[in-house]
Write a structure and sequence with these properties.
Elements: E1 3-5, H1 7-15, H2 22-33, E2 37-40, H3 41-49, H4 54-64, E3 69-70, H5 74-89, H6 96-108, E4 111-113, H7 118-122, E5 129-130
Parallel strand pairs: 1-2, 1-4, 2-3, 4-5
Length: 134
């Protein structure tokens, strides 16, 4: 099964020296090795937005170009809005990007790999699957 890798996981791999993220980084490396990573444009944008130094930006952009940008289709935006409305009606708030990630994962029948705790609330109300480190 393919996996949408959210920004926090990429950030750990690219920037963190914290040993507490070792398992997350190893899981990402395994997903990359198995060619199971799904890259979304908004995630790529978030990652690149963290680099104001032009040479570092270009280097990261080059590395990320190895991952095909999975298209977001019009129906994903509608599904994201429906997911947002469902969660909000049950007292759960979330970002537009989070729900867009959920919508694409739902359409592609893929899992989401993140440490963003908000997703644990979404799973109680919408049909998404989270990637678990094994």
């Amino acid at each position: 099964m393919k996996v949408i890798v959210d920004t926090p996981i990429w950030s750990y791999a690219l920037r963190s020296k914290n040993a507490g993220y070792k398992l997350h980084i190893q899981a990402l490396e395994a997903l990359i090795s198995d060619q199971r990573v799904i890259m979304l444009g908004p995630v790529k944008q978030e990652l690149l937005s963290g680099y104001s130094d032009k040479p570092r930006f270009n280097k990261l952009n080059h590395k990320l170009s190895y991952f095909e940008n999975t298209p977001i289709v019009d129906d994903d935006y509608v599904q994201a809005a429906m997911f947002s409305n469902t969660c909000r009606s049950r007292g759960v708030q979330g970002s537009h990007i989070d729900f867009l990630i959920c919508a694409v994962a739902f359409r592609l029948k893929s899992e989401i790999f993140t440490t963003d705790k908000d997703f644990s609330y979404y799973t109680k109300h919408i049909p998404i699957q989270m990637f678990e480190i094994k």
